[in-house]
Amino acid sequence: MPTPHIAQEVFLLSIWSISLVLEGAIGVNYGRVADNLPQPTVVANLVQTLGIKNVKIYDSDATVLSAFANTGISVIVAVPNNEIVSLASSPSAALTWVQTNVKNFFPATQITYILVGNEVLSGDSSIWPSLVPAMQQIYSALRSYGLDTNIKVSTPHALGVLAVSFPPSASVFQPNISTSIMAPLLSFLSSTQSPFMIDAYPYLAYLADGGQNIALNYALIEPGAVGVTDSNSGLHYSSLIDAQLDAIIYAMQALNFNNISLILTESGWPSEGDPNEIGASVANAEIYNNNLVRHVTVAQPLGTPLRPGVEIDTYIFALFNEDLKPGATSERNFGLYYPNLTQVYPINLNPTSCQFSTNLALSYFGFCGFLDFVISRILSLEGAIGVNYGREADNLPQPTVVANLVQTLGIKNVKIYNTNATVLSAFANTGISVIVAVPNNEIVSLASSPSAALTWVQTNVQNFFPATQITYILVGNEVLSGDSSIWPSLLPAMQQIYSALRFYSLDTNIKVSTPHALWVLAVSFPPSAGVFQPNIAASIMPPFLSFLSSTQSPFMINVYPYLAYLADGGQNIALNYALIEPGAVGFTDSNSGLHYSSLIDAQLDAIIYAMQALNFNNIPLILTESGWPSEGDPNEIGASVANAEIYNNNLVRHVTVAQPLGTPLRPGVEIDTYIFELFNEDLKAGATSERNFGLYYPNLTQVYPINLNPTSSQFSTNLALEGAIGVNYGRVADNLPQPTVVANLVQRLGIKHVKIYDTNATVLSAFANTGISVIVAVPNNEIVSLASSPCAALTWVQTNVKNFFPATQITYIVVGNEVLSGDSSIWPSLVPAMQQIYSALRFYSLDTNIKVSTPHSLGVLAASFPPSVGVFQPNIAKSIMAPLLSFLSCTQSAFMIDAYPYFAYLADGGQNIALNYALIEPGAVGFTDSNSGLHYSSLIDAMLDATIYAMKALNFSNIPLILTESGWPSEGDPNEIGASVANAEIYNNNLVRHVTVAQPLGTPLRPGVEIDTYIFALFNEDLKPGATSERNFGLYYPNLTQVYPINLKPTCSQFSTNLALMEGAIGVNYGRVADNLPQPHVVANLVQRLGIKNVKIYDANEAVLRAFANTGISVIVCVPNNEIVSLANNPSAALNWVQTNVKRYFPATRITYIMVGNEVLSGDSSIWPSLVPAMQQLYSALRFHFLEANIKISTPHSMGVLAASFPPSAGVFQPNIATSIMAPLLSFLRSTRSHFMINAYPYFSYRADGGQNIALNFALIEPGAAGFRDSNSGLHYSSLLEAMLDATIYAMRALNFNDIPLILTESGWPSKGDPHEIGASVTNARIYNNNLVRRDTVRPILGTPLRPGVEFDTYIFALFNEDLKPGATSERNFGLYYPNLTQVYPINLRPTSQFSTNLALS
Q1: Is 266 marked active-site?
Q2: What percentage of the chain's residues is helix, strand, coil (to nearest 5)?
Q3: How far is CA 309 from CA 13, 281, 301, 521, 828, in A?
Q4: Which family does the similarity line name (predicted)?
């Protein structure tokens, strides 16, 4: 319920990136304090009709929850305030509550949150101490029922929990709840990855203020509201809701909680109030709620000034007016609807950047419109009006005056022609985006000098950013229309500037481009004939466009219809056509069929066509200059104040509010446009017109009236592929179980994705309400009829999709199956049929839920070995594949491939393809692609990458893959070698692991990119024709007996935003403090034979790094301790270190981490202050060399960094390093998503204890060890190693770092020691290391009691005994091997047996 609270807030724009990823959706509060509301089933239908996906209720009413069952709508339920105390101390009460109110309804009703109370901390204070305990009890109950990964626990607050909210940066929680309640509450939210929920009502603040200080448009989120700037943070606020939300974030930060996400659980505006309730009206309620929806879904930038780009789920208060609510009249009038289901006012709950006409779905031009609209989803820009601020004049106002003028005009974007310091300072803290420029005469010097580029960016950009919001650096101006001696230096200079931006970590905020004159085109009429000048088309433009594409930067063009009109002399170009006047006749391009009603559109499309002619289809445009002169020489026809006023006003409307936005070739794609120019410039050379393009005279008088306040919007569509395992459910058989039985089987197996080969109604009905995603198919023989008939496509989608969706979660329609490997008469109809189906989906508003694609056999490739030469068959490459890929790219759909290593192995006859390579077996030797340098250890990866390379050959680099079929037959004809139950079991189990939990996921060409994979097939199909193998690909016989065991439940959960589960692989430390070790290449061979995938060394030795090249083994390298100080303050030294020790070997040698020193904080304290700076310098160097995505930076610590480690929950860092070094170090690790590295040796603890208190089996990780229970946390520890690791995690938590993952970089046990070194023996070493390996590799994943289920990469110390190590005898005897390659004791580095579950939480 709304609680009055004043919050006048202020901000300036912040560009700090925050790694909080939320889905940002609109929901609604369904309150029921009324006696006249519709039945819940009616309400559920209404919510579905409105397209609302999220609903929040204030209890857990069974009738309501049942009404929302099987609707696909997410529901938030609540524990009433009066039940909190009883739940707080009673686990059984919590279990009963969850059983009764949640488990009985889930998953049919998609409950996503349990709210414990409502605005508890603004009510009865006797409940406050019970709030967090009740939340913990509810969470424990969810865990008991296995529901904690699906349902989160939180509680909503009123803004009254803040003691201070103005300015936002000063915000803190009320002192009576801050440390006693809020701190543990926030700790709970952080540890369970739950959001902070806030009810924020700008209306109540406006009401309390009485309209004295808070402007109504500021409260109503109106565009153009002046807003306020927070004097502490410099952030600017243009809406009160943003200020209120950021006040909450600042209050959390004051308690050292920086990364907890927000949900706005209530916000709204009343449509009626008492006489004293100012502002309560239907008009204001309509404005506020419509603005709120746009603000959190499509406005740019999303998020708040303190967290830009972070979307916030928002729940409007409320769905209905509630007649029984007590209090003021406004309390009963927050609803969007009256109880009789009449709207109180119109509201658009699903805003988009443009409206799509359903008539297009039935017209001949239908798909052209659709295709171009969808391109807009890829090429969307903010579509704003900016202005060029040229200064070739001696009478202009001071820059500070100009900055004030620009702000007054509401202009958000300014472009200048240099980097004048006075100008940049004037625009600081204004919220205005600024484009700066490298002068043409500096390009050559920058092109070949990285240091010059670093200096340029430091001096002209970094010194001003982010106070001045620099968004682009333009390298030169119209370079390719000027001095040709500069041309070869243009792209190298851009690349140098971009590398410098990366070095300073500015590349995500600032892009690099260069503006061109239209003269770069050799032909521009008709637009479809647009091509670049031949002297730049092949030599300069392709690499230039490639740079823009790879850096996601726009092509910038200066276009002046006036100049074309002037050159034509008014003979052929009509003035109204040049002036963008409505009603201009225009012309139709005879090649494309597109109609042009304005010259500017024709000029822009000519540029797009010229890029397309070079196979660059998706680079966005910015119109960096366009304008019309207000005065000219006598021969300069058309130059007049009247025409300038008409042109520039029309230009503004054309690119911001006219429909359709964009151009005929890219409809719906908005184009940022910069008017040339702000002022007349009296010193410009040339014709009179050159000095008269300004909107203003230098004395600040307008030359003519102009409206510079356009509306801005943005498309946003993301294709999130969830790397998962699915199964093909083929039915070419006469003995299969009924579909309902099959659906039950699939559910029991935990399979979430099924693909069928038609749209059988019985099958689709069987999968209804199962939560399983289904891919359906258009049979090949229906493709031709669909290709030319929109009506047929509409009927097909209605009959086969719409009638079943959303009860059956259809996610893809595949048009045909392996069409391009079959009847060629169908081929020309394939893409048109896909387009028609897509248009039909859009007609029914299903295109956001259901994608369209088609699966291919690997036979579409003309070459696939090595993968880097992958190309499509020449008879389909350009004629079919290019438009097909364009369709997939535009609709953000996946390329589907059926890939069978079995068939390649069969065709090869086992001559060249090793069986283990085909079976995805760990340890397969594989091969290295000599062109790319990428190493392939499995045939499936090579096949997939060959497909990706084939797409790249057609200039499609970013289309995702789905592996729609892959499998291995369990039986075959005598000549079908390799077809056996054993091989099928090995292949499919390996395939599941390979695409779900192996590290790195993805393929060598796309590492880390997960691929949805569908195993072929669920059943053996007895009616399939062909060889015996064709009938024996099933996982099951038709009688539901397994053909062989398979685990189809991969782990795909995540510990936290930053703490991703690892494979939990075993690595080894390869120390070399010895004089008798084998040569590095011998060691590399040994490591490969052992199946070890990870090696850590203590330097960056060249011989070692070369020995591990092309082995597929990941290597951790190290900066010696004595080099840290020199690297800490020297960027050049860091660049040189990375170049010499990393870049020259990578990627042939798969370096994954650079360790900065070894156990630094347990050694020479003079190095300590340099540790984090050295890590930061090396990270910047990695960014400069574009390596930071592949290589991380950390540093390993001994357990000596802890001041306390027993019990684990008391773990804290040493006081002399905790805040001074560890806090910034952990902050660095978090921001770079790197691991905390710890060296933990239970042996040393056991030795120091003398066997008095620490049992040997507890130290040796032996199953059955009694262990102990931490009295603070209640967690049980059955091994000393677990306790050590959790003590480290607790120490990080004590500094408010809860989400940083661990790597156990050293652990081992000596096989020999001095007489006093108890426990050092071959037997104990064998037991410890074998147990260590099993603990960290077998399933189920154990983790630690504090982080159950989280796997840890573990590096055994050490590979060899090292005879030159100083110290006790044990130091020289940690090796698994003697230097002569004899094992010290047997060890299994790839165990498959189950490890004791005693390690799990008790």
Answers
A1: yes
A2: 35, 15, 45
A3: 12, 32, 6, 37, 43
A4: Belongs to the glycosyl hydrolase 17 family.
Instruction: Outline where DSSP puts E strands in 21-106.
Output: 26-29, 54-56, 74-79
Between CA 680 and CA 667 the distance in angstroms is: 33
Do residues 9 and 428 make contact, with C-beta atoms less than 8 angstroms apart? no
Question: What is the C-alpha to C-alpha distance for residues 412 and 301, in angstroms, rounded to an integer?
Answer: 12
Question: pLDDT-based confidence at 301, cuts 50/70/90?
Answer: low
Q: Is pTM, for the whole model, over 0.90?
A: no
Catalytic residue among 9, 83, 119, 1159: 119
- Which three-class secondary structure state does DSSP give residue 856? strand
Q: Is the per-residue pLDDT at 295 higher than 80?
A: yes
Looking at residues 593-619, what average pLDDT do you find? 91
Is 1282 considered catalytic here? no
Per-residue pLDDT reduced to its tens digit, 212-262: 889 898 999 987 677 888 999 888 898 999 999 999 999 999 999 988 999
Of 9, 266, 677, 976, which one is the catalytic site residue? 266
Determine the pLDDT at residue 749. 87
Per the CB < 8 A criterion, the answer to whether 344 and 337 are in contact is: yes
Residue 457 has pLDDT above 50, yes or no: yes
- The DSSP H or E segment spanning 115 is strand 110-116
As to burial, measured by CB atoms within 10 angstroms (0-12 exposed, 13-18 middle, 19+ buried), residue 1248 is exposed
Question: What is the CB neighbour count within 10 angstroms for residue 911?
Answer: 7
What's the token pair of residue 1295?
């500094």
Helices (H), 379-513: 399-409, 421-426, 443-447, 450-457, 487-503
> Two tokens at 400?
């500070």
Q: Are 1335 and 1262 in contact (CB under 8 A)?
A: no
Gyration radius (Cα) of the chain, Å = 33
Structure-token match 């693909």, residue found: 755
Reply yes or no on whether the pLDDT at 1397 is more than 50. no
Buried b / exposed e over 299-337, threshold 16 CB at 10 Å, is bbebbbbbbbebbbbbbbbbbbbbeebeebebbbbbbbb
Beta strand 162-164 pairing with 172-173: antiparallel
Tell me if 114 sits within 8 A of 137, measured CB to CB: no
Tell whether the torsion through CA atoms of 1370, 1372, 1377 and 1380 is positive or negative.
negative
CA-CA distance, 281 to 1207, in Å (whole number)? 60
| Residue 329: half-sphere exposure toward Cβ, Cα within 13 Å | 11
